[in-house]
Amino acid sequence: LSTGKNIHETREWIIRNSPVPIGTVPIYQALEKVDGVAENLTWEIFKDTLIEQAEQGVDYFTIHAGVLLRYVPLTANRLTGIVSRGGSIMAQWCLAHHEENFLYTHFDEICEIMKAYDVSFSLGDGLRPGCIQDANDEAQFSELKTLGELTHRAWEHDVQVMIEGPGHV
């Protein structure tokens, strides 16, 4: 519910007609707004997308805030690399700009938006392993530790959290 033709109208119809909670991955729609070029993403574009989807009534957002710049090199020797779409988008952005993940640096602002609209987090495991050989490596555990820390920060803002995992192994 984050990409595709007429996504705004499609998502609105699904939310209005669904008896179950609806979640999205806002970075996917933000990426479409910059024609699929991860390097062109900005905090402002993402924030606008987040608010747009929150105003539509999305129940939870998958946010890949745990993919930190210093963790990306830890995936270099993996057999399957970074298999999460959201994780690879944010890793690509971090490497292109040599800056920390803006979802991490703006996490408190994201929490305030989510609190205002009563949206829950699904903290995305962007560095999850894609095969047994890559499982339980330093990249995965470093990100999981960060996701735990972000959970406590979200709770301080009175925002509910789910942590994705353990991956596709």
From TrEMBL:
Keyword Phosphoprotein: no
Taxonomy, superkingdom: Bacteria
Keywords for this protein: 4Fe-4S, Iron, Iron-sulfur, Lyase, Metal-binding, S-adenosyl-L-methionine, Zinc
InterPro entries reported in the protein's UniProt record: ThiC/Bza_core_dom, ThiC/BzaA/B
Single annotated GO MF: lyase activity
Cellular component, GO, one term: cytosol
Entry cofactors: [4Fe-4S] cluster
GO biological process: thiamine biosynthetic process
PANTHER family reported in the protein's UniProt record: PHOSPHOMETHYLPYRIMIDINE SYNTHASE, CHLOROPLASTIC, THIAMINE BIOSYNTHESIS PROTEIN THIC
Protein name: Phosphomethylpyrimidine synthase ThiC
The species this protein was found in: Acinetobacter baumannii
Upper taxonomic lineage: Bacteria, Pseudomonadati, Pseudomonadota, Gammaproteobacteria, Moraxellales
